[in-house]
Amino acid sequence: KLLNIYEGSANNIGKHKSALSVSWHSIRSSTQLRILSKTTSNIFTRVFKTKSEHNGYATFKNYKSKVKGGGYSKGFIVLNSRATNEFSEKQSMAYLVNRFYSPQVVNFFNYRGVELNQDLWSLSEMIQWIWRGCIRNYEPMNLFIPSKRMRELLLDWLNNEEK
After folding, report:
1. Is the pTM of this model over 0.85?
2. What is residue 148's three-state secondary structure?
3. What pLDDT, in 10s, does the model give residues 113-136?
4. Residue 54: what are its φ and ψ, rounded to 5°?
């Protein structure tokens, strides 16, 4: 109940299953990535109305400079950030990724008869990242998760639903 998860037209950028994945980022033009940046900036400033020092975001490291934007550019939080209170002042956070195992990892385990649960891993990684923010102090937090897949994984988990 402390999470305010944005639902609105700004999420349209992430409506396809692979939207915001690393491969999605790799085939986007600078203009398209700038749209993601401007959309995120708009969410922070006009929807969540939080100051820049209270905004955090995640994207793939190679795309950080192309996705950062006004009102949040200094709020980068590494995707695999763990066990730190360094970001506990972040009241609004944008998870601008859609995580999948690399195909090499999947092939390695499949070859050995081990089936991986991509959704469970992706959800776990996102929850770890979200926990870096002020929610760890039991304070209300705003979330912008434009990837439909990632947002639905979180909402299903919060509502105790399985897919």
Report:
1. yes
2. helix
3. 888 889 999 999 999 999 999 999
4. -105, 10
Residue 52 CA to residue 27 CA, distance in Å, equals 29
What is the rounded distance in angstroms from the CA atom of residue 58 to the CA atom of residue 135? 16
Contact 125, 112 (CB under 8 A): no
Segment 60-70 mean pLDDT = 93
| Alpha-carbon separation of residue 26 from 21, 22, 44, 49 (angstroms) | 9, 6, 25, 30
| DSSP-H helix ranges across the chain | 22-26, 30-42, 64-67, 103-111, 118-130, 148-158
- Tell me: pLDDT of 57 over 80: yes
145 pLDDT tier (thresholds 50, 70, 90)? very high
CA distance 130 to 94: 9
The separation between the first and the last C-alpha atoms of the chain, rounded to the nearest angstrom, is 22
From 159, 145, 155, select the one nearest 92 (Cα to Cα).
145
- In 10 A of CB 101, how many CB atoms? 15
